[in-house]
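testing teh design pipeline on a random one, pls ignore if ur not involved
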């Protein structure tokens, strides 16, 4: 008879043996499958690394393609920026026998042609928009916005015109030395009356707004004047000579509320000792510039003007030019390869461009986004960063006038006619 305790022990021993056997089988299976798993893990890892290499190659190839495209774009931009055009196409020509006896200025996007016997406005196709006859001996013109005044220098007649139509004549008592027009058609003029001079201001219909007599003793001899675009202010540069000492006085006449209670409507004045101020201009609605022989002054012209910039320069100034944002000076350097240097300043007086050149030019100015220099046979054009963009001889006869009509398209007036050209 087997005791229960022995039975219990015997069952435990059997269970223990089974457990050991199961564990041995599991260990055998683990030893068998572990190399296979290691093989599988190695294969997966190799596949994953290979895939990453392919992806990296694809990414690197994309980066290279993108980098090459960027370089091509930069090179193309540099080529276009520094490319100098030396050829042009003639898009149209209008033979005009009056070009040699007429002068031309821009009025809006059109061409104002004026001479001894009249004035006419031409569109960019050289078609006449309107014309007006008059009689003048030495016609000169000034333009502001859509208005222009043609005046007979040393004569007594002026004529005001607008882009839409002629406005009318202004007859004065004394010879006109200089005249300037505002954007409302009002005209300021310097008139000579023997030893005296007059600074007169007229409405576009010829009626007298104001007059002011001047003399060498008080406040001096008027050299130049400028009228503000809104017609409220007139700046006059006076030459003064006292005890052999030369000076200049810039007076501001105001015909709005600021000047009503001031003597002769003068609201401000600026004196420059031992310096001449031969030119004064209004370059935009609130900014005026006085060109001195040793630099320039910039005035805040709104209300009572203040001198906010007094720029002094070295060297001989031989030409000036400007637009509504920039002030330009040309210096004579005397160098063999670069006889001249042009410098462009912003209205804060900061120099933006300095560029040497050797062209013996007869005229310089800013038209659109181009700085244009020319003589009878040659034209050079720079962008406003000082980069030469066009440089060519002209075969259409002596150049009289040129202005930018559109990008790369220009109206050229020569002795042989009026031409629309396109730079290549």
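output:
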């Amino acid at each position: 008879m087997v005791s229960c305790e022995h039975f219990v022990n015997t069952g435990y021993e059997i269970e223990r043996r089974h457990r050991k056997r199961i564990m041995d089988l599991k260990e055998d299976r683990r030893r068998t499958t572990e190399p296979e798993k290691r093989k599988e893990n190695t294969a997966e890892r190799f596949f994953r690394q290979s895939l990453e290499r392919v992806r990296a190659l694809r990414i690197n190839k994309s980066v290279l393609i993108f980098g090459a495209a960027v370089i091509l774009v930069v090179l193309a931009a540099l080529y276009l920026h520094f490319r100098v055009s030396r050829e042009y196409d003639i898009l149209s020509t209008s033979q005009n026998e009056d070009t040699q006896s007429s002068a031309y200025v821009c009025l809006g996007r059109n061409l104002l042609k004026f001479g001894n016997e009249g004035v006419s406005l031409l569109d960019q196709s050289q078609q006449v928009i309107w014309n007006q006859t008059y009689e003048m001996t030495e016609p000169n013109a000034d333009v502001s916005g859509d208005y222009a005044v043609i005046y007979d220098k040393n004569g007594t007649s002026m004529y005001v015109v607008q882009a839409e139509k002629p406005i009318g004549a202004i007859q004065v008592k004394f010879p006109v030395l200089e005249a300037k027009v505002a954007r409302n058609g009002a005209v300021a003029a310097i008139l000579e009356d023997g030893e005296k001079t007059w600074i007169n201001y007229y409405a576009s219909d010829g009626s007298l707004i104001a007059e002011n007599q001047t003399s060498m003793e008080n406040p001096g001899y008027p050299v130049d004047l400028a009228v503000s675009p809104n017609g409220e202010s007139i700046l006059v540069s006076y030459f003064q000579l006292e005890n052999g000492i030369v000076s200049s006085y810039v007076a501001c006449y105001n015909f709005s509320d600021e000047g009503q209670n001031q003597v002769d409507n003068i609201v401000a004045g600026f004196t420059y000792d031992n310096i001449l101020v031969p030119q004064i201009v209004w370059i935009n609605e609130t900014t005026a510039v006085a060109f001195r022989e040793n630099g320039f002054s910039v005035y805040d012209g709104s209300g009572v003007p203040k001198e906010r910039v007094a720029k002094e320069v070295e060297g001989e100034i031989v030409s000036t030019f400007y637009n509504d944002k920039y002030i330009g000076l040309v210096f004579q350097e005397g160098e063999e390869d670069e006889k001249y240097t042009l410098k462009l300043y912003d209205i804060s007086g900061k120099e933006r461009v300095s560029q040497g050149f050797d062209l013996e030019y007869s005229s310089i100015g800013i038209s659109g986004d181009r700085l244009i220099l020319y003589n009878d046979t040659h034209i050079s054009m720079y962008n406003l960063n000082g980069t030469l963009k066009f440089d060519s001889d002209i075969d259409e006869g002596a150049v009289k006038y040129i202005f930018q009509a559109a990008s790369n398209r220009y109206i050229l007036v020569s002795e042989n006619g009026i031409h629309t050209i396109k730079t290549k």
